[in-house]
């Protein structure tokens, strides 16, 4: 609390993505369309799962939760980024910066845990199909989702407390378009090496450990497919390839950014744009374009709405 009382910085200034006026307007148009498609695509998936009885299964329950997280995750950073692309001076208050940081880690960590749970769901469904109904009951699925949100909240609180417990007395310029722990703690008026190592041990370890667990689970699934029929292999490969594509697109940038304590690269902004803006858009496209059940449910919803 003493460190908080020493805080003099009341706002932070973002350098943003570009100082070029024309390039900024182009980015604004491109990312505005991307954000709207992200919202529409993920809302459509959630609505399809909720309103279609045949999709009330563990896999689609997790998929609807993933879409909800993607809506929240992109909404934490994209609106502020779009505002900054139109303004010459891009600022955020200290309290809003900390709030953005908290929710960014909350939703990102929730997605990491959810993707791990989804891999476990596919492992049980493919490797032990006879036990699947008893293992993955809806009550168990709800408990898993509650646990992952609890774990994400604990992680985010730790990251937030580590950040706010430092004194900030200037400078206040963040070389990014949103507040994140690595970029904010660099502005603290004290040595942050230990805090940086704690960040790596927290965010980096979570990302890397979950990713390795996911790779291991999908490897076991692929090995087990040798004993299944051709049709079973085709369906399993279609589902798992979609899942693993999402995993690679999300975990790659997270591991790249959060496994480094004090080092930063010029490509960090591009990587950040990819996992905060692009990946939430790709998730609904990956799942809906490759999943006949989801596409059929969406078609039924459109027909039902047209009839009404």
User: Helix content range of the residues, please?
Assistant: over 70%
Q: Please, what is the average pLDDT?
A: 84
**Name of the CATH class:** Mainly Alpha
Summed up, the helix count is 11
Order of helices and strands: HEHHEHHHEHHHHH
Q: Identify the CATH architecture.
A: Up-down Bundle
The number of domains is 1
| Radius of gyration over C-alpha positions, nearest whole angstrom | 21 Å
Q: What is the end-to-end distance?
A: 58 Å
The count of DSSP E runs of length 2 or more, i.e. the number of strands, is: 3
- Low confidence ranges: 1-5
CATH topology: Rhopdopsin 7-helix transmembrane proteins
Main sheet overview:
3 strands, mixed
Please, what is the CATH homologous superfamily?
Rhodopsin 7-helix transmembrane proteins
Account of the 3D structure:
With 308 residues, the protein is mainly alpha-helical. The protein has one domain: Rhopdopsin 7-helix transmembrane proteins (Up-down Bundle). Helices cover 76% and strands 3% of the residues. Strands 2-1-3 form a three-stranded mixed beta sheet. Helix 2 packs antiparallel against helix 3 and helix 2 crosses helix 11. InterPro entries: GPCR_Rhodpsn, GPCR_Rhodpsn_7TM, Olfact_rcpt, Olfactory_Receptors. It is a multi-pass membrane protein.
């Amino acid at each position: 609390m003493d460190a908080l009382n020493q805080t003099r910085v009341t706002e932070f200034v973002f350098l943003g993505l570009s100082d070029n006026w024309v390039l900024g307007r182009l980015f604004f148009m491109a990312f505005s369309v991307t954000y709207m498609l992200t919202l529409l695509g993920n809302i459509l998936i959630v609505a399809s799962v909720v309103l279609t009885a045949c999709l009330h299964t563990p896999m689609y329950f997790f998929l609807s939760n993933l879409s909800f997280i993607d809506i929240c995750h992109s909404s934490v950073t994209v609106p502020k980024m779009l505002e900054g692309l139109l303004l010459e001076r891009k600022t955020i208050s200290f309290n809003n910066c900390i709030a953005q940081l908290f929710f960014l880690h909350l939703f990102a960590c929730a997605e990491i845990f959810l993707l791990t749970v989804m891999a476990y769901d596919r492992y049980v469904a493919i490797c032990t199909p006879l036990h699947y109904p008893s293992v993955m009951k809806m009550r168990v699925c709800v408990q898993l989702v509650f646990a992952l949100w609890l774990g994400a909240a604990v992680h985010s609180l730790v990251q937030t407390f580590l950040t706010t417990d430092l004194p900030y007395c200037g400078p206040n310029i963040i070389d990014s378009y949103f507040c994140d722990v690595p970029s904010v703690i660099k502005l603290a008026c004290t040595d942050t090496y230990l805090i940086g190592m704690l960040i790596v041990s927290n965010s980096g370890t979570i990302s890397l450990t979950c990713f390795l667990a996911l790779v291991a689970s999908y490897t076991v699934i692929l090995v087990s497919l040798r004993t299944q029929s051709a049709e079973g292999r085709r369906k399993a490969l279609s589902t798992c390839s979609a899942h693993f594509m999402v995993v690679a697109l999300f975990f790659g940038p997270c591991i790249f950014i959060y496994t480094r304590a004090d080092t930063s690269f010029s490509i960090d902004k591009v990587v950040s744009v990819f996992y905060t803006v692009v990946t939430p858009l790709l998730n609904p496209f990956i799942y809906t374009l490759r999943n006949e059940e989801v596409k059929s449910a969406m078609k039924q919803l459109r027909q039902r709405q047209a009839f009404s």
